[in-house]
Amino acid sequence: MDRLLPRAPEVPLPGVVVLPGWLPPDLRVELVRRCRTWGDESGGPRAPRMRNGAPMSVRMLGLGWHWYPYRYSRTRDDGDGGRALPFPPWLGRLARRAVVDAAALDPSVTDDPAAFDPDVALVNWYGPGAKMGMHTDGDEVVAAPVVSFSVGTTGVFRFGHAAGRGRPWVDLPLESGDVVVFGGPARLAYHGVPKLVPGTDDPAVGDLPGRLNVTVRQTGLDG
Ligand code: SIN
Ligand code: MN
């Protein structure tokens, strides 16, 4: 999507910081390339089954830890049982830089940005029509912020509150290269992705069909 002016960083809710275009095109391309490799090395991203048995429309894979509803494991317990791929230190450093930038805009995201020490990345592939229902990121046992990198088709990121799935919420269109950091008062708020915006593919990332989102988190888990 062409823009005449760069979008400014914003703090749409306390503890939620959007850093538009924070990932430069070369890093977007590299992230897509790495995600493809991680997919090849782990038997491919797969659709986790929710408690009711229905598969999610988003396909996922975990680095550092494998996640499936609603827990972390070192092994792909709901798949081939293999060990989760290692969490890449470079991704942790990139995410920590995003936390530092976000905390400069809204210090409530974390007391100590430099202490952010993530140990898991969850890669989400959204094909055409995929979406993610309102949920909390509640399987981590420490209060560290969540860093979310988006590449490809624009996704609508719906961000609400901690009391439940319903309104009020804000709808934030996340374009390719946008980064969101949420923490502090927003850490346990419900959020989801109700839709992608057709026709917003990023030419910089070539033939990526749909949207790629990578969330980087600190679980606080041992083992
Ligand atoms: C998530 O909430 O885990 C993913 C959010 C997104 O795809 O932007
Ligand atoms: Mn989430």
Explained architecture:
- The protein has 223 residues and is α+β, with helices and mostly antiparallel strands.
- It has a single domain (10-46, 55-217), classed as Jelly Rolls.
- Helix content is 15%, strand content 29%.
- The strands form 3 sheets. It has a 7-stranded antiparallel sheet with strand order 1-2-11-8-13-6-3, with helices on one face.
- A hairpin with a 2-residue loop joins strand 1 and strand 2 (16-19).
- The model has no long low-confidence stretch (mean pLDDT 96).
- Bound molecules: succinic acid and manganese (II) ion.
Write the layout of secondary structure elements.
Layout: E1 10-13, E2 16-19, H1 25-41, E3 59-63, E4 66-68, E5 71-73, H2 89-105, E6 120-126, E7 132-135, E8 146-152, E9 155-159, E10 170-174, E11 179-182, E12 191-196, E13 211-217
Antiparallel strand pairs: 1-2, 2-11, 3-6, 4-5, 6-13, 7-12, 8-11, 8-13, 9-10, 9-12
Bound molecules: succinic acid, manganese (II) ion
- Give the helix level as a range of percent: 10-25%
Strand pairing plus helix content: what structural class?
A: alpha+beta
Shape: globular
CATH class: Mainly Beta
Kindly give the count of domains: 1
Q: Give the neighbour order of strands across the main sheet.
A: 1-2-11-8-13-6-3
CATH-assigned homologous superfamily: Alpha-ketoglutarate-dependent dioxygenase AlkB-like
- What's the CATH topology name? Jelly Rolls
Q: What's the gyration radius in Å?
A: 16 Å
Spell out the helices and strands N to C: EEHEEEHEEEEEEEE
Chain-averaged pLDDT: 96
Strand content: 25-35%
**CATH architecture label name:** Sandwich
DSSP summary, beta strand count:
13
Instruction: Count every helix, treating DSSP H or I runs of 4 or more residues as helices.
Output: 2
Q: Biggest sheet: strands, sense, closure?
A: 7 strands, antiparallel
Distance between the termini: 44 Å
Residue runs with pLDDT of under 50 for 5 or more positions: none
